[in-house]
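ok trying again, last paste got cut off:
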Amino acid sequence: MPVHSREELVAALDANDFERLLGTPESEWLDFKKEPYLLDSDKGRWEYVKDIAAFANATGGCILIGVKATKDPNELQEKATSVTAIPKKLVNSDRYNGILLEKLYPDVQGLRMRWYPESRAVSDGLLLIEIPSQRGSSKPFVLRSMSGAEDLPVIALGVPMRVGDRTSWMRAETLHHRMQGTRQVEEAAQVERESRQHASLVQRAEEHIRTLTREMKWSNVATYFLQALPPASERTGPLLNVHGEDGLRGALARPKSLRTMGFNLRQLGSLETRNGGLAYLEDPRRCISLDRDGLFTVGAYAEADFLGWYLNRARTDASSPMRLNPLVLVEFTLEFFRFVYAALIPRVSHGVWTFRIVTEGLQSRQGGVLLNPGRHNADHWSDGAPASVDNMLEQFQATGNAAKDAFRALESIYGIFGISSSEIPYSRDGEIVEAEIVAVQ
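nice, full thing came through this time. structure:
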């Protein structure tokens, strides 16, 4: 049966159930492309930017490349009729992003590109481009040039809009009306509402850390918390399908981890229902909390059996510093971001997510904490730098890439220990390399 929502589309792609796409109609949120955009031509680049802008000017949407859509004479819309997986080597994501920066204004926030199947061993697949709903104050998204005679670019502005399953162009009268600032008061009020809603989310996130620290009895040990805050929303009530095997309970009970026995989010016990959401507090080393609207918190303590694994075997004095294992720190951090991008963000299609990185007691608890440079060989693992602050809070917006966001979080941690980000293990070019973690036995 065809898919009817973005959530169903992502679920079908995650399950590699491509046959389920057949019969799905194109709509205001979905566009199928048989082949990649021809970015070597002016026309191809213009088509790509036009399609992205059309969704951004509406309520967001998805472009799925590798699926052929045709229209039956008795139908109003084109429907997916066959899957035509494309060679992954034909798509350069950096070039796709660079063209948007060059030819569209303002920047589209939160755009994501993902391959299905995700396996690097598979050379052909489907490319999903997700365009989140954008803030009203950013609209309209304007093409810096238009396609003229013989498909050559001309100096002119265009504002495409996704209407139904087609792209429509904003009329000159409408664009002029918007440029007069008639929406300024409404947009200012919207920004204020979103600011208040985000502040409320932050307050709840801080309360979760205090509650979890108390319930886990971590008041005397150093702790490390990672939090994902969903976009501020005017909607009330649960936004996510939390319970049921096809909801977040199933995803969290069986998270897709890089290593079965690694330092990840897999639980040894069962999830409990708390305030309509989910929580896991059975493991004394780490905890998990998920609210109905997507607010997600994971925490771990800096003890010898988790964040300090292996490096503190000879530690006999509880007052001596605890050494953090950088390999554990990196893997645990990346697994948090992988889960957020795989299970949470696809279920909340509007707006940009915010991440919070919180550490507590790095100097004052259990004799302080040291961090070992991760790229050093075994002879240097006795080295370690002390934390320069007791507590730290770092907050940043999601970039659309789990590996890059994980690196940014770790860059903040390494910074408070005075260690260069070049020492972060499993990293290259500003992101964490999953394959290097998978290769660890």
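cool. The chain has nine helices and 25 strands. Residues 234-238, 376-380 have pLDDT under 50 and may be disordered.
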